[in-house]
Specification:
354 residues, alpha/beta, 14% strand, Rossmann fold, globular, two-stranded antiparallel ribbon
């Protein structure tokens, strides 16, 4: 009997000590450090702040640019922080001075390839955590430079099909203009968009000739806005959606259009799969080389790089890496990619006989 009493007392003492230790530990947890926050409001244009350590932040347009809304360009961005992850910016709105945040690859494995990430959010918010910040360390391990785009939103009074696309096109020109400084190959700069961000990337794959012509006289006039590749993940409607083409006509596809990678879920994300198919079909019918699409049976919309309970769609990023490697974007910086060779061959090929 005495043995059981002693054992019980010992167990109670251990439990009490554990509770006290746990309580003390909980009370002593320090506050998160280096939590990103929006910059201050000044008389000049708002200066966007990095959301990840080491980010190089550059506004896309100079002060006074006709692309900017002079009445609102000094307003500060508004952050929504992740409730469960201290220091993680989940969403951003009130973007009036669009910018890029550059994260460079390690010197030992830098492929020279750069991906401009265009987060989604239905054009009402920018899901910058899931679809901007999260892919940075994933692509870093492959020696890929990443650039997070903060583009203007419909919810703030802008039109995605013009203002949002312009922001991405200007981002491509800006990265290309700084390619030598950042050890990026100017012929290996692509864009990857998610959902609403994919609408921007799909438009950038066909509208760069017009943008280059209209902006040939500015400071980046000699720099092309053509992306060298495009990734569209669970995309929103493209310029080939019937609702758009009925009103505006079918947009012309440049013969040197870049290769495209498209991915999404089918049954559980049907409308986005339909939109993906419309873009894929248009590019395929135009003969653009190296267009690849993966529509998986199961999956969810808007989960970024997450594995979605281990559904097949959760491996889309692996398929993208394979596609990028196959097209030569993992070769040494300065080497011509297979994508560039195929595009040049298609451009110079004689027209196909009817």
């Amino acid at each position: 009997m005495r043995k059981f009493i002693i054992t019980g007392l010992l167990a109670a003492a251990v439990a009490t000590a554990a509770a006290v230790a746990t309580s003390a530990l909980a009370q002593s947890t320090p506050a998160p450090q280096m939590v990103p926050k929006a910059g201050p409001v000044t008389k000049g244009p708002y200066q966007p702040q990095a959301i990840l350590p080491g980010g190089i932040v550059m506004p896309l347009y100079p002060a006074g640019s006709p692309f900017l809304n002079a009445k609102r360009v000094s307003e500060a961005e508004k952050y929504t922080m992740d409730a469960g992850v201290p220091g993680r910016v989940a969403r951003i709105v009130n973007i009036h001075n669009p910018s890029i945040e550059v994260h460079l690859a390690g010197a030992n494995n830098n492929t020279g390839t750069a991906i401009i990430l265009a987060p989604g959010g239905g054009h009402s918010t920018l899901v910058i955590g899931l679809e901007g910040a999260d892919p940075v360390p994933f692509f870093f391990q492959y020696g890929i430079n990443t650039i997070i785009l903060r583009n203007r939103l419909r919810s703030d009074g802008y039109e995605p099909k013009t203002d949002g696309v312009y922001d991405l096109q200007q981002a491509i020109r800006t990265v290309r203009a700084h390619a030598a400084e950042w050890h990026i190959d100017p012929h290996k700069i692509g864009a990857m968009g998610f959902s609403a961000g994919a609408e921007l990337t799909m438009a950038s794959a066909i509208q760069y000739p017009e943008f280059n012509t209209k902006n040939g006289g500015d400071a980046l006039g000699a720099v092309s806005s053509r992306p060298d590749f495009v990734g569209s993940i669970y995309p929103g409607p493209s310029l080939f959606t019937p609702a758009w083409t009925t009103k505006n006509g079918v947009p012309p596809i440049p013969k040197d259009g870049p290769p495209s990678f498209i991915a999404g879920a089918g049954w559980q994300d049907k409308i986005h799969a339909v939109w993906a198919g419309e873009y894929f079909t248009a590019m395929l019918n135009a003969g653009i080389p190296n267009v690849e699409m993966h529509i998986y049976a199961r999956g969810t919309h808007g989960a970024g790089l997450q594995y979605r309970d281990f559904t097949a769609e959760g491996t889309w990023q692996d398929r993208f890496v394979h596609w990028l490697r196959d097209l030569g974007f993992f070769g040494k910086s300065g080497e011509e990619t297979l994508a560039a060779k195929d595009s040049a061959a298609f451009v110079t090929a004689p027209p196909a006989k009817p």
